[in-house]
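Sequence dictates fold. Below is an illustrative record:

_____
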Amino acid sequence: MDILPLVVGIVVIVVGILVSIALHEVGHMVPAKKFGVRVSEYMVGFGPTLWSRRKGETEYGLKAIPLGGYVRLVGMMPPAPAGRRPREGFFGQVIADARDASVSEIRPGEEHRAFYRLSTPKKLVVMLGGPVMNLVIAVVLLAVVFLAIGMPTATTTVAQVGDDTAAASAGVESGDEVVAFDGEPVEDWNQLVGMINDAAGEPVPMVVERDGAQVTLTVTPTPAERPQTDADGYPVLDEDGEPVLVDGALLGVTSSVERQALPVSSVPEAIWLQTSETAKAIVSLPVRVYDAAYEAFTDAPRSQDSVMSVVGVGRAAVDTAGAEDYSVLARVQLMLMLLASLNVALFMFNLIPLLPLDGGHVANALYEGGRRTVARVRGHALPGPADVARMMPVAYVVFVLLIGVGAVLMVADLVDPVRLF
């Protein structure tokens, strides 16, 4: 196996992940700065700092572990409300430390630049900026794949004619373009397959274009069971993953395949499909993580739709780069689609309404805005900023759970990775 495609594949996926993370954080940083919040750090990665440079009031850097990133927005948490007694115990200390750390970042005279002083709409823009950036990246990548590169599409031009088949008996030749079948114009291959299935055992006229002229042939499709296909031409599988067979017919030809640009509408359709499937995966995440671990440590095969860690994504990229039966363009296309799926996953996952995820801050901003709206309607004084620090124990628990889930999936991806080919 040529090592160069593997190296290129790994580089492409690592760079793609880093760029996705970097742009996610840009989505937070730019609106925050626009609204006057001081951004003290912009970092891609976690752990030891490999490189950093200060520009203006922000330190930009790259850290050793490329599993995420962050921007430090000054004053994320307000000080403790006046008169509130601090909670006792471990979590009480966690809350107090979080408040102190947040308040200590605010420079004298810059209290107005603290994040917690932003209005609810501005907080929402800042916190949604990161996930929305991932969604935009996914849209751009799929637009390149579908509209610029194009997808392999079966055409109505005959590539090969099988020996001793209905097509061979009727005089069909390689290179013929089917333009009509049983008096109906043929627009695409899937339509033609359906017409052939409906004409099992019946002699019907078929018009082909050959050397610039139209030729009418009489074909009698041979009755046979064949895989059922969906609207996109993909085989329908049963619960065991086997193709569903239905009564149909065979003509004995294969179609030529060409890359064709898909309609613009295919991009939002693909985004919606990936978004909805990711949402289902998030809702069933505990079960899917258990399934991944069970499949990895038993004889059960790892399913292709299993959830993966960043290690699994890397292994998938290596599989894609080393797919010898695929052209270089096809490999690039698969990698772009893999990165698009990853960005959709980042978009959806970050919207989970729990700290420390972006969705947790979004939920807090909505709660704060709701309280203020109710106060305005009732004619009461507006309440202060929501006390985010009180949610820090939840953030710690969620963080530990995320580390645990990530560790389980990484081990599963190392022991029994998802095989794309």
